[in-house]
Here is the input.
Amino acid sequence: MNFVCPVPSEAYETVTLAHGGGGKVTHRLIQSLLVPAFDNPALAALHDGAVLPWDGEQLAFTTDSYVVRPRFFPGGNIGNLAVHGTVNDLAMCGARPVALSLAFILEEGLPIAELRTIVESVRDACALLDVPVVTGDTKVVERGHGDGVFINTSGVGVVARNLEIAPQRVRPGDVVILSGPIAEHGVAILSVREGLEFETRIESDTAPLWPVVERVLAAGGWDVHALRDATRGGVASALNEIAEASSTGIVLDGAAIPVKDEVRGACELLGLDPLYIANEGRFVAFVAPERAGRVLAAMRSEPVAREARVVGRVVNEHPGTVRMNLAFGGSRVVDMLSGEQLPRIC
Amino acid sequence: MNFVCPVPSEAYETVTLAHGGGGKVTHRLIQSLLVPAFDNPALAALHDGAVLPWDGEQLAFTTDSYVVRPRFFPGGNIGNLAVHGTVNDLAMCGARPVALSLAFILEEGLPIAELRTIVESVRDACALLDVPVVTGDTKVVERGHGDGVFINTSGVGVVARNLEIAPQRVRPGDVVILSGPIAEHGVAILSVREGLEFETRIESDTAPLWPVVERVLAAGGWDVHALRDATRGGVASALNEIAEASSTGIVLDGAAIPVKDEVRGACELLGLDPLYIANEGRFVAFVAPERAGRVLAAMRSEPVAREARVVGRVVNEHPGTVRMNLAFGGSRVVDMLSGEQLPRIC
Here is the structure.
């Protein structure tokens, strides 16, 4: 039998850091407060962005705010992260990015030189993708009422007419492909915060995913069912969201999930599970089995996904649940992140 | 001769509240740091939003963050303000609003009940306009690193093919119509902050402007040249922006500008000029003279603009400058707001 746990109503009286963690508590806030208030099919799809019919085309529209701390970290900063994050949310809808908005909430006292550096990072990230910032906004709050720089980037993009990339299209038999080794963004941020030093400097994986997604779509077309970048809450939460939205089960091969040695070492030291750590340049693709080989080859042709591999499959059993086969035999449930592991990771 | 003052480079070393005030300092930040970084025609138009060609249609795209303090004020709250503000920016591009995004930056400790009230205000404001929230984001920052609730709403809308609403279309001879009495939003906010009591409670004018703009466009069509809502920096800054972007002069009739008695009284008490105070439901329209009567009548048919009136005209003289004829004779320059009058007004 198929028991589906009813979504509990919001159990907290005040906002906690966990409400922003991307795991169960965030999920519950969205399901209990936001989805009912704004009941419409685009939002209810719980996609990374909305896809709207637009004069024969399909328009993708997405938004994200960035509050990452520290603002500068190995491999990136809040500026290029904000571009990558929003372009990636569009890409996860199958959308070519067309234009971005850029809205700053600045704290009084921020050095203008630092703002300039961040703006230049935004500019460079946009230039690389040939996506313009077409509209913006700047607000300033008093010292002590913000935290240097918060950025919101929203984006519009276009989805080809012959595509439908959505969690609801995932079905038993689909192959789950992961685009590369995981947990690098979260571990890079945490090492700066905690002043940890490792033999190799661990850098964030922040990167724009549209170029590789473009290849995935060219190779897989209609047989690409869903895409999801594994940001807050990590690969575990991304897969749980898809399992829930598609009412399917997902079986992962634990041994197949790539984690770089130094990242695994850092995670062991810190007592963290890499499956729950945020990535900013990794995604999972759900593809019909007959096209999985071509899609995998297409992914590997782009540097950002050259270590892509098949990590699991979609099954009829345990709908809404992700299970992982363990290297030493047996399997375990991979639940959604509960609570907050790393606040302000993006 | 036509002297155009070169834009000075950013003279500040740190961000000040004035950078968010919507006046000269904001303008300089945008012109020295942001426009050069993201050089593209849509952004350089310095419109309230971007208008992009989109498969034969025109897509409007805009973003705004809201940091208003207090979050609840007479006549509205940060939730419906965020809907009105973004819908109004779309309307100022001549765009029918199609969809909004909603992104929260919450401070740890915010009562969930308050968040719920704000979400309900967003919902109600959207329902009235029949505009869905189709995508969203929620971030949480630690106590003391935010201020309760910041909201970003971005919006997409569609501009009819036969319209071009842009500051650059303003030309000498155009009639300037103001949609109603000014300065109510700013004075309402300030009275709460300062604990001022007046005989009549002064309420914010926050309101959605698409319904009246729809009538304006139906009545004026191609002869409607530009629209601008008079938010941060007030009517004075809105008119200066248009004068600069169109390289025309604007002459205002000081006696024609409507200000309610209690608002004028409050401004006198506080030493503020109503022309510089933020509005959230007032706009100026620049219309070819032969259609001005029809447009004015159309505006007055909507309650939100029933006190609309002609307040000035566009001239060849003093390009880039707004002058106001005074009731007792003579005239004065109405400059853009310099510095910050009321921080966190929206």
Q: What stands out?
A: Chain A is about 30% helix and 25% strand. Residues 112-129 of chain A form the longest helix (18 residues).
